[in-house]
Specification:
Radius of gyration: 17 Å
Low-confidence stretches: none
CATH class: Alpha Beta
Strand order of the largest sheet: 1-2-4-3-5-6-9-10
CATH topology: Rossmann fold
Number of helices: 6
CATH superfamily: Alpha/Beta hydrolase fold, catalytic domain
Structural class: alpha/beta
Helix content: 25-40%
Order of helices and strands: EEEHEHEEHEEHEHEH
Length: 285
């Protein structure tokens, strides 16, 4: 039985996003949860986690960023979506849709990877009570680890630039990194991760308003010790972008929870649901 309501979310530029709203199944918590996906990851990936949060009393909204999943409305190579648009247009629209649905005053933004890295360019940041960033980091290539440290430069400097002109999109699906990406998403991902500061690299270029210094809400990054992208250095790099916020980072070690690995993605999988109370504890903190 379907336990969510399908929503169409209208952005300020009239772009339509596809979302799912999960009503609270217990005494409703004070703030609803907005789940913002990782790069190239669809709303379906978070279904079981969102359902569990609803059972804990949270109203939850998860959505597909423009150009991804059910928020892609044209052939991928024609998509003009960008990461900057995700932060400036998509997340604000999703925040407002969730507030309208619940009549709450603020939301908790639960972001996965890129979904937790864009608050500083979000014009309605004051509607966010706190941020819990799962695997939230700058993703700076210098501080990556393992196989990803070897793969990222090849993807960013070779595969993406060639594919932009031959395919018209970023071919991430073939290497197991989510949905294929609109070409400008792929380009910005490479740009933002090639230098320290992630989206700060767009300030003064495609982004004119920078809110990082104005943000004072609590921001917690939860990361796994075996994550090759959200390494300790990259997690700290993200939190340092918010000098006036209350920041904290929490490291989870796979062995402590009976897992061989957690990495960048597994925290939301049912196989790792014994980690979910750790996330919930930060939502309630």
């Amino acid at each position: 039985m379907q336990n969510y309501e399908t929503l169409n979310i209208t952005c300020s530029d009239h772009y339509l996003l596809s979302g799912r709203f999960y009503a609270a199944q217990a005494t409703q918590q004070t703030f609803p949860i907005l789940i913002c996906p990782a790069t190239g990851i669809t709303q379906q990936f978070y279904h079981h986690f969102a359902s569990w949060l609803a059972e804990q009393g949270y109203a939850v909204l998860v959505f597909d960023f423009r150009g991804i999943g059910k928020s892609l409305h044209e052939p991928l190579k024609q998509s003009k979506a960008s990461i900057v648009q995700w932060g400036q247009l998509d997340i604000p629209a999703a925040v407002d849709a969730l507030l309208d649905k619940t009549q709450a005053t603020q939301v908790i933004l639960l972001g996965h990877s890129a979904g937790g890295q864009l608050l500083g360019i979000n014009p309605n940041f004051k509607k966010v009570a706190k941020v819990v960033a799962i695997a939230g980091s700058t993703g700076h290539v210098k501080d990556l680890k393992g196989r990803t440290k070897l793969l990222a430069p090849v993807m960013f400097k070779l595969i993406f630039p060639i594919a932009r002109y031959t395919l018209g999109y970023g071919p991430t699906q073939a290497i197991g990194m989510g949905e294929n990406l609109p070409k400008d998403v792929a380009r910005e991902w490479a740009q933002f991760c090639s230098k320290p500061g992630y989206v700060m690299n767009a300030i003064g270029n495609t982004v004119q308003e920078d809110f990082h210094h104005q943000i004072r809400c609590a921001i917690t990054s939860i990361w796994a010790s075996d994550d090759e992208i959200a390494t300790q250095a990259n997690v700290k790099g993200l939190l340092n972008l918010y000098p006036n916020a209350q920041t904290e980072h929490i490291e989870l070690k796979p062995q402590a929870y009976g897992h061989k690995s957690i990495g960048h993605m597994a925290m939301f999988k049912r196989s790792h649901q014994n980690l979910w109370p750790e996330i919930a504890a930060q939502l309630q903190a």
